[in-house]
Amino acid sequence: MQTKVPLLAFNENGIYCEAAQVYLDPWKPVDKAIITHGHADHSRWGHKSYITHHTNVPIIKHRLGDINVSGRDFNETFVINNVKFSLHPAGHIIGSSQVRVEHKGEVWVFTGDYKTEEDGISIPFEPIQCDTFITECTFGLPAFKWIPQQQVFDDINAWWHENQAEGKTSILFGYSLGKAQRLLKYLDTSIGKIYTHGAIENMTEVLRPLVEFPPTTLITKETKKEELLGNIVLAPPSAHGSTWIRKMVPYVTASASGWMTFRGARRRRAIDKGFVLSDHCDWEGLLSAIEATGAEKIISTHGYTDIFSKYLREKGYDARTEQTQYEGELNEMATGKEEATIA
């Protein structure tokens, strides 16, 4: 008896739809790729053709250069070899999508990365009914429970104001695509000026036609540390400890990340202050998203996959794990390769 080929299968190149001969967020070069969003672990260089949401097109062109890419609208159906595909809001960052795949009455949804909290920048997550749901679980532990983002931004602005009163520069670390713009959107410019690292400034300029952001000032070799005193600097995590940042003394550092839930993470990274802010789901967000899909089969990727899948099985789901080369918010703690490509 011939084994049925799954609609989406995991192989050495990525997530493959054999019926359409197309990959979703492949990590090795392939002929045709559907891309969920612009982060480096999901949109890689070397594919012959790319399909993505139209707002993600300028993002991945900025990162990857001259590529063959076409954009689609949300909820627009496109057919490849009789397989129906459509993109739907993931709420992760600007331009992020889930991929719905339908063939012979079977529906799968691949989330890429996603979050259920509305951030006021990206189009909010949209639950899609499906049979099989492929979910990340970067923060798939009950310990991860996000507080409302407005409270986080109130705390960030209060921290900046306190540092200003002490005559210090505030340096806030956030991933250059997504997190940095989310921070920028809600910084209180009545406190002072917002300065940026080159990687963040360049990406923000790509996104300004899509979202209204406060004005920023790029830090250059000519920028004097006296100009920075009392103001705030947005920088990628890779800038921490670099010669670039040492010129800003006296300064206070902070990181905005889901990993700041754990105090040890802040200490290990020698960060003065941690703000818990993630572009991924917390525990409850993951569970509510899964429930909203109506899916019976759940495939967990990148994160606390084993623990999360075990919990889902106990709840009656047909749940399993798959290995991928996605990193989730681990990208925020990268060694600097990502920033180097877009600086």
TrEMBL record:
Keywords: Exonuclease, Hydrolase, Ligase, Nuclease
Gene Ontology MF term list: exonuclease activity; ligase activity; RNA endonuclease activity
EC number assigned by the record: 3.1.-.-
InterPro entries: MBL (IPR050698), RibonucZ/Hydroxyglut_hydro (IPR036866), Xnuc_lig_assoc (IPR026360)
SUPFAM superfamilies listed in its UniProt record: Metallo-hydrolase/oxidoreductase (SSF56281)
Protein name per its UniProtKB record: Ligase-associated DNA damage response exonuclease
Native species: Ulvibacterium marinum
